[in-house]
Amino acid sequence: MNTTTVAPLGATLAASSASTPTLREGNELLFHWADYLVLALTLAISLLIGLYYGCFGSKQKTDLEYLLANRQMKTIPVAISLIAGFISGITLLGTPADIYSYGTQYYAIVFGIFLMAFAISYLYIPVFVNLHVRSSFEYLHVRFGDRAVRTLSAVIFLLDAILTIPLYAYVPCLALEQVTGYPRNWIALIVMIVTVTYTTLGGLKAVIWTDAIQMVIFCLPLIIIAALGTISVGGWHVVWEEAAKGGRLEFFNMSLNPLERTSFLAAVIGGFFYWTGYNAVNQTCVQRYLSVPTLRAARTTAYIFMVGVALIVTFCTYIGLVMFAYFRDCDPLQGKLVATSDQIVPLFVMRIEKGLYGLPGLFMAGVLSAALSSISVALNSSAGVVLDDLWRPFAKKELTQLQGAVFAKVTCVVLGALCTGMTMAMSGLQYMIQVAMTLIGIAAGTQFGITSLGMFNPWANWKGALAGGFTSLIIMGWISVGNEIMSVQGRINYPTLPVKVSGCDPPLQATASPTMDPTVLPIYRLSFLYVAMFGWLIVMVVGSVVSFLTGATDPDKADPDAHTPLVASWLRRRQARRKESRMASTERLDLDRVSVGTISLNPLNLKQA
């Protein structure tokens, strides 16, 4: 689910950071030595891959190899890396819990994912490939001809990454603390040291190949959990029947209200803008699309990514329904078995895999692997952005390829150390999590909007791009911060679907779900699914208006390759017609001159003169 669940996840994680009980069965911790072994092997494999590429392979001697693998990566591993990088521990823990609490309407986001794959394949990726740029921010420099737009977008991305990485690390550490009893700070330290080490040493090649292995590790437990859970409740038909009786099956809520938490249109349209924004222009994705040798390979990568993400979201949705069937008579939250909704999945796993030593560890290894892949991708991309977009444009002396590789590695270590400290600080700063989630949501729509403005509007100039970007940051910041403040105050609550507690021991009486405060400004209640879309829309509108007011770019002088293929085709036809028109005018002028000269040299005219 990543940051698509900004509103509910921010509050949930914040509540978790204050107090997280360890899951126990009697007086015994639920983790067995076999589970620890599985976790240790997961970390060891990732570390060994980094050591191989850093010390025994090509040793990443150039920054092109370190950051783009010399643009020679194969399609399948890159596609798997994309899937692994965008399916974080937040997805594996958050999506089933969301389905458990609010039903299946969120699943309609898979339609947005399908649309996303075609959009990025034919509208965005061709531009980056044809221009041979190394980052989405270098494209902005080429398109607008000004460093300010490139720098603004690069800084937004870097801040986004610095805030995202601690969240990716914090979620599995929180879950591991529940099942092991060890302090989350020590777990976070170990996880971050391993991730930073293999990312720094191995570069993009290590990131991609560890992602491929880690994806297997986190997909396998999904399948096992879905199967064991289905068996434990009596079969898939029981899962479906209980979900229907509990009101969890909702797919076509066609509400047009943007304030409603989830609807079909919000999931499809909002999901499309969220996923397209991150996969079309976010450097963590663009970097990997550019690591394959051809445009065709990049498109194939996008399609495989689409199918893989859709399958994982499907499995997570089904697990959410299985959990509801399993806990149909005793809701873990109201039964005080867990403190927050993000703890329901670990509890469910421990219950259904009780006695199957190693399987709980395999599931937690899956959650950990999802986090490792997301962290390593963000670190590697951030190092490249610092080098290519924040250092080289301003440096007086150009770095050699070897110096660039060393610079990127040092940057990776520094960013890793910073994010490690922030991850450990999250345990004591409850609202730091909510602030981070808010800023991440704001950044997504703004970055997407600035790049789309350049690709789709040939009249846009750098002043419009800057004005649109800053306006989006301010307005979406105001809305998102207002939403978080209202949520902290308990004034924004989305009622969950009904649950039962009659089967709890001892039996309990269900409490009413909190309701929404009607006095809250409607703009603060904007669905989290629409955040990226509104940010994009603000940039497009403001950027276009300001561009025309400050002197729009002349389409006849625009570079067609810097625009999306549809616009590029129009520009080429327009420029060709203008060129033909100018040539025709020149020919007519030449003919007129020749005619005048012929008349003046006519013997009759000379005789008359």
Description of the molecule:
The protein is mainly alpha-helical and 609 residues long. It has two domains: 2-435, Up-down Bundle (Sodium/glucose cotransporter), CATH 1.20.1730; 571-608. The chain has 21 helices and two strands. It has helices at 6-18, 33-56, 63-68, 75-86, 89-102, 109-131, 136-144, 147-180, 184-233, 236-245, 264-280, 283-289, 295-326, 344-352, 359-391, 401-425, 430-456, 462-488, 531-549, 565-601, 603-608; strands spanning 24-25, 28-29. A two-stranded antiparallel sheet has the order 1-2. Strand 1 (24-25) and strand 2 (28-29) form a beta hairpin. Helix 5 packs across helix 13, helix 17 (430-456) runs antiparallel to helix 18 (462-488) and helix 17 (430-456) crosses helix 19. It is globular, with a radius of gyration of 28 Å. The N and C termini lie far apart (90 Å). It is found in: Cell membrane. It comes from Frankliniella fusca. The chain crosses the membrane at residues 33-55, 76-94, 106-131, 152-171, 186-208, 215-239, 262-281, 302-327, 362-386, 406-425, 431-450, 462-481, 528-549. It is a multi-pass membrane protein.
